User: Which sequence fits this backbone?
């Protein structure tokens, strides 16, 4: 009998735990998306992943950084010319997503962020994309590579 | 140190704990490249060290164990389990509360001390030469960045699957560059996955010979998990 009671006790307790976890949903999240490829299909899929991620967590609960370097800058180059990609990026920006650009790549590829990249200001430039991603992880950001 | 000589246990332990001078480390890396037994030994020690540090990360508060023991013997298991759940639950609740302190406090807590080295691992699992060049470019850019900004950093390039070709003697298109990078940056380590080496041996009948200074670990994936548990940042290239 004692054994039975304690079993009941245990299951009630663990169910309680489960309920609490579920009610809390995902809580607050800090996420870094790593973009270093330039094919349009992957980039579009990445924008879709990010939107779905925001939908699941809630835009007020998420600190989202998209960090681009190397070929990944193509995302904002495309957004500069292609209205569909521009919509996607603009839409994510309205929901508070930061798009960060690697200064090494700008220099190496001689890209002018003011004219070549969609809606990019000095504040969006980070010294090194890879170091930024490492730094964000040390600050508790999760890493996602779409 | 000549080839026949064995490293002392103390030396190997100091190597695993990263307490050697750069010169001694170079000696150890040089030997690790072609000494399978030494590799195994280092591998085992790393595993033990990581397991120990992992275990200590999650030691439960002493209150849990004493209250569980204090309950007497007869129905001890069930009640103890119940109690442990309650204590654990409460602990979890308190921890949860703690994580809801104002944002600025959390930031202060998370920010690493200035001397804390940055710890970064690159995961390479793809082997086409164009891609491997990008990998080395990115690793080198990062090393340069840390040097320019005078930040301490440890960087590990972990290869498995097709990525192993980066580190295979006679196959890697960038053997010389890797050797130069190893010399240039003491805190940069190239790592190969033992599982992949064995698979190549079984499936292709090839004896994978590695570039000098490459460290072999049991499993690339396991190493990635260990490193992340130790607070390393993960970057897939």
Assistant:
């Amino acid at each position: 009998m004692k054994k039975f009671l304690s079993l009941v006790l245990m299951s009630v307790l663990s169910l309680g735990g489960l309920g609490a976890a579920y009610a809390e949903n995902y809580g607050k999240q800090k996420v870094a998306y790593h973009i270093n490829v330039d094919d349009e299909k992957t980039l579009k899929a990445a924008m879709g992943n990010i939107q779905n991620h925001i939908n699941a967590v809630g835009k007020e609960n998420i600190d989202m950084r998209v960090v681009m370097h190397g070929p990944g800058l193509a995302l904002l180059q495309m957004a500069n010319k292609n209205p569909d990609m521009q919509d996607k990026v603009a839409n994510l920006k309205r929901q508070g997503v930061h798009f960060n650009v690697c200064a090494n790549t700008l220099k190496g590829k001689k890209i002018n962020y003011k004219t070549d990249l969609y809606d990019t200001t000095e504040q969006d430039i980070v010294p090194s994309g890879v170091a930024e991603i490492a730094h964000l992880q040390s600050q508790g950001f999760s890493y996602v590579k779409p | 140190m000549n080839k026949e000589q064995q490293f002392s246990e103390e030396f190997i332990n100091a190597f695993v704990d990263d307490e050697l001078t750069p010169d001694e480390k170079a000696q150890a890396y040089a030997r690790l490249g072609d000494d399978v037994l030494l590799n195994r030994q280092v591998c085992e020690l790393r595993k033990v060290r990581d397991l120990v540090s992992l275990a200590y990360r999650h030691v439960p508060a002493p209150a849990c164990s004493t209250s569980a023991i204090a309950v007497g013997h007869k129905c001890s298991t069930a009640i103890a389990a119940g109690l442990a759940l309650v204590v654990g639950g409460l602990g979890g609740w308190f921890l949860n509360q703690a994580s809801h302190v104002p944002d600025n406090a959390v930031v202060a807590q998370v920010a690493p001390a200035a001397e804390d080295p940055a710890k970064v691992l690159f995961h390479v699992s793809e082997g086409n030469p164009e891609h491997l060049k990008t990998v080395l470019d990115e690793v080198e850019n990062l090393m340069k960045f840390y040097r320019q900004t005078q930040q301490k950093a440890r960087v590990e390039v972990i290869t498995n699957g097709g990525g192993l070709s980066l580190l295979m003697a006679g196959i890697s298109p960038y053997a010389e560059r890797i050797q130069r990078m190893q010399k240039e940056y003491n805190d940069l380590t190239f790592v190969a996955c033992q599982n992949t080496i064995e698979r190549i041996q079984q499936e292709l009948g090839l004896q994978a010979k590695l570039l000098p200074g490459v460290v072999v670990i049991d499993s690339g994936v396991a190493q990635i998990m260990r490193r992340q548990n130790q607070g390393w940042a993960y970057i897939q290239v």
Observations:
- Chain B touches chain A through 28 residues (CB under 8 Å).
- Strands of chain B lie at 118-124, 153-159, 188-193, 215-217, 233-236.
- DSSP finds ten helices and five strands in chain B.
